[in-house]
Fold each of these.
Amino acid sequence: MKIVVSGGTGFIGGALVARLRARGDDVTVLSRDASRGLEWHPPQQGAWSEKVANADVVINLAGENVGGGRWTEKRKQRLTSSRHDATHALVEAMQRNPSKPRIFISASATGYYGIRGDEIVDESASSGPGFLAELTKKWEAGAHEAESIARLVIVRFGVVLDHSGGALAKMLLPFRLGVGGPIGSGKQWMPWIDREDVLRAIEWAIDHESARGIYNVTSPNPVRNRDFVRAFGRALHRPALLPAPAFALRLLFGEMADEMLLSGQRVVPTKLPNEGFAFQFPTIDESFAHIFSKTS
């Protein structure tokens, strides 16, 4: 298959591109850095547009990291525009060849559901309040513009786990120093997913013609933050006792602390298992055993 991946040099995208190439797919990476892929600068069209127009699969993982810093108004605008511009540009490129049979897989996140407490939410749940919910709604709205010209799959990712990047890489040093622990009360739910299962879910969506619409790409077993850090500590043979105080996090991160760190969503995937996808690492202990077996 001819596959184009935006965000193909990132934490998920880099591993996905390697996996797709290993199985024999012809993969083109779109990057703002010409040394790392086919250069593109959304929302402008360019030489890359023809590749997208003629691809069998277009995978949209582009977007500035929401956890990369305090949410100033300027940064909120960048977070929104990075997703809107990339998604809109890809859809516009596909519209140049509207009759081409194709699959469009576009990223989103469980932030769509907002702060939900202990409520169990699956793909049928409505969007919630907050900046992340508004951000993901706009992101998904852009992807829906491709429904008439592609088999559309929107993947709402939870916290993606692997030692090589993402949230887990940031946690490694304090835990190895013995100063890791829960965030705030530790009662908030974490919708998490092993990166290997993310890659498998995307591959499954490509290969299964019946796959359409919204999918929660999260483990079927979300955990509270306190249980997550205990499992992390066990995997590293380190204590997980020192909490990060809520007031300090709010001072450092402001609004981002309340939406991303001190609250969460008890998200479960309904559609993936109902449609035949089997998680390889469904529990947090299985995931950590897998992740840290690669470093030993």
Note: The first strand starts at residue 2 and ends at 6.
Amino acid sequence: MWIELKRIYKMGWQSFSRDGGTVIANIFILVLTICLITSIFLLRGVSQFIISKIEEKVDVSVYLKEEIPEPEILNLKEELSQMTEVKSVKYVSKEEALEEFIKRHKDDPVLMKSLEEIGTNPFLASLNIQAAASAQYETIVAFLTEPDFENLIEKVDYYQRKPVIDRIFSITNSMENVGFLLSIFLILVSFLIVLNTIRLAIYNLREEIEIQRLVGASNWFIRGPFLVQGIIAGFIAAIISLFIFTLSCWILSPKIEFLFSDLNIWKYFTQNIFIVILIQLATGIGLGVISSTIAIKKYLEV
């Protein structure tokens, strides 16, 4: 058993070393495929980051009446925080609302002049609510419009924002669906390219395979060297791909973070380095073995 395995490995390695041009072509295709699948994984993380940032901008504001003391507002905030439909609740006091308005419109002399003429703080305290999903805003608003809160709440701006909220969540859902379908399509295309490349390499050795069949070699013995070649090519391709992505993420991360603050590709890559290595090894070796098995099958049929 061990002697046969040793012979299979030796024949596979010799064939791998001998077929220089074909081997390089196989490794090149595998590297492209591994890079593509790794890119899908990383882009999925980036898209989830972008989607979460978009969804963070979506909220509903509940404006409280002028005379309501802060402890009652904080009690309402606590009640909302305990709802499963609520993702987060932020309390904005009258003073904070005024500061934010001044900060945002400090370069607008007309608005600043109007604020000075009013002489008092015209803003109301508010609670900014983010729901876990767009459909859950209806439930939250229904809760806030109960009679118990009539004396607390001045206005809920949900219905003014509803078209925008629905549109944003529709876009993010479409992004996720399109990303998933595109990933499946690219993986299938990659597999077909690898399969055809390896099939071509095996076709060039068809006479050698026929001779082995004539002398009584088993299917396992004939298939073994090609599987060894697939494993070696896949492993080398995975190492090359890991080097490419490590270097690329390290170089591009500062530039991407400059464009999208808080989006650190290098940090995301290093945090998921073991998953990336597993994906690359599984893709390289798996594609090499599976493609070799399928490609040689027709030559093993009696």
Note: The chain is about 75% helix and 5% strand.
